[in-house]
Amino acid sequence: MAVNASTSTEDLGVKSVGKLLVQYSVPAIIASVATSLYNIIDSIFIGRGVGPMAIAGLAITFPLMNLVAAFCMLIAAGGATIVSIFLGQKNYNRATDVVNNVFTLCLIHSIVFGGLTLIFLEPILLFFGATADTVGYAMEFMEVILYGTPIGFVFIGLNNLMRATGYPRKAMTSALISVAVNLLLAPLFIFVLDWGIRGAACATVCGQFSAFVWVMSHFLSKKSSIHFQRGNTWLSWTIVKRIYAIGLSPFLMNVCACVVVIFINRALLDYGGADGNLAVGAYGILNRTTMFFVMIVFGVTQGMQPILGYNIGANHFDRVKRVLRLGIWIGVAITSLGWIVSEGFPDKVSALFTTDETLIRIAREGFRIYFVVYPVVGCQIVIQNFFQSVGKPHMSIFLSLTRQLLFLIPFLIIFPRFWGVPGVWASMAGSDIIAFVVAIVTLWWWMRHTMRRMEENAGVLGASAGAVTEQTGNK
Question: Where do transmembrane segments lie in this chain (predicted)?
């Protein structure tokens, strides 16, 4: 059954690129900032309400949290890109099919992945670097998160589709609802009810459930331009394959992040000596800080995604280039701000999470080394997500592998042997600068060859269509 597209969707092909980027990116940035602030404040509650070892235990969960995010974003990112391309082609019936399929896949993934992980949770965390001092905190946190995966997966998957189908403000609102409920309940559960780190996880799931209700109400409403339709397909292998193909890039990016964090945690434990657990906790502080700025850049790329997808589908290549240029400048500005904050005020940032002087000292060293090349990270992230948004997942996968796997893992094996814990921080900075160079070269090559060929093909098709129209008119 076909549905009518909203006027906001049609605007993607004609409205000013700058205004569209503001319209779509600002709500996504606000939602990303809110989510990042929640993560930071939640860590502050845990660090000050439970203790420095709880911060280390939370850092041990990062690889598993990245793995959870990987299976979710495999569906969410792939579905959002495909639905945008279908809308650009004015194929609203297939766009509805995508929404139905994303919902079904989110439920399947969450039940299978969450269930299997719960069964083997303790050995997984020990493999990720948990010790006798930290495994208890990590298990308490992850058990609650995993029980809530069906809620979280559906919320995140459909929220990405909400933005891609022309409702960026509603997508922002759902994220804000999740964060607001989270921040209200976390101090109650941690400090008043004395639930410790488990209370932080319970607050997270409660926030996701509130947003889940909001998002479901949108896609159940016939007032929404694209919504659930009983008559459309709920599990089509054709659509599933396309979702997996495009979603493979963010999936691999998160899987790589999982692998990398394992190497980082183990290197910090091996070379940190008696302060190994605290070194892992310091990485937790650095991770929360860097992710704050990275999530803002992701907000920009989320705003770019429906604009890029629609205009690629409509063969508006000049608009695609303008969106990319503007996105790169904004991304670099955001990570440059992160560089200023982290290099200039490392102790003040660390003191938000803990009062432990040793932990602050280790984190200070990490900030000074890791963030030295941080401004270029924004450019690399925008370029990587650009390829995903225009339906070129293999290019996006390649760039995600360069930053998180191909360069960082070898550096983590070599550098700490010579410089200890500072070598761990230097490994992260070194991989970022090389990945930036590779991203620039890859984009230049693609623009020069592949996109030029797409423009030429579109021109030929346009000329042929014009000739057919003229001949028909003469007849």
Answer: 20-38, 45-62, 68-87, 99-121, 141-161, 173-191, 197-221, 242-268, 280-301, 322-341, 367-387, 399-419, 425-446
- Per-residue model confidence (pLDDT) at position 31: 74
d(CA 125, CA 131): 9
Q: Tell me, what's the pLDDT at 459?
A: 57
pLDDT at position 458: 62
The Cα 32–Cα 192 span in angstroms is 28
Give the model's pLDDT for residue 469. Answer: 41
Could you tell me which residues come within 8 angstroms of residue 406 by beta carbon, excluding any fewer than 6 positions away? none
CA distance to 1, 123, 203, 310, 383, per residue, from 30 (Å): 34, 37, 20, 23, 21
Low-confidence ranges of the chain (pLDDT < 70): 1-14, 451, 454-475
Q: Are 224 and 158 in contact (CB under 8 A)?
A: no
Question: 3-class secondary structure for the chain?
Answer: CCCCCCHHHHHHHCCCHHHHHHHHHHHHHHHHHHHHHHHHHHHHHHHHHCCHHHHHHHHHCHHHHHHHHHHHHHHHHHHHHHHHHHHHCCCHHHHHHHHHHHHHHHHHHHHHHHHHHHHCHHHHHHHCCCCCCCHHHHHHHHHHHHHCHHHHHHHHHHHHHHHHCCCHHHHHHHHHHHHHHHHHHHHHHHHHCCCHHHHHHHHHHHHHHHHHHHHHHHHHCCCCCCCCCCCCCCCCHHHHHHHHHHHHHHHHHHHHHHHHHHHHHHHHHHHCHHHHHHHHHHHHHHHHHHHHHHHHHHHHHHHHHHHHHHHHHCCCHHHHHHHHHHHHHHHHHHHHHHHHHHHHCHHHHHHHHCCCHHHHHHHHHHHHHHHHHHHHHHHHHHHHHHHHHCCCHHHHHHHHHHHHHHCHHHHHHHHHHHHCHHHHHHHHHHHHHHHHHHHHHHHHHHHHHHHHHHHHHHHHHHHHHHHHHHHHHHC
Report the pLDDT value the prediction gives residue 6, as an integer from 0 to 100.
Answer: 45
| Cα 371 from Cα 376, distance rounded (Å) | 10
pLDDT one-digit tens code per residue, 137-169: 889 999 999 999 899 889 888 888 887 777 778
* pLDDT value for 7: 44
pLDDT score recorded for residue 297: 92
Quickly tell me which residue has 């303008």 as its tokens.
322
Q: What is the dihedral of CA 377, 380, 381, 383, to 10 degrees?
A: 160
pLDDT digits (tens, 9 = 90+) for 319-341: 888 889 999 999 999 999 999 99
Task: Give residue 327's pLDDT.
Answer: 92
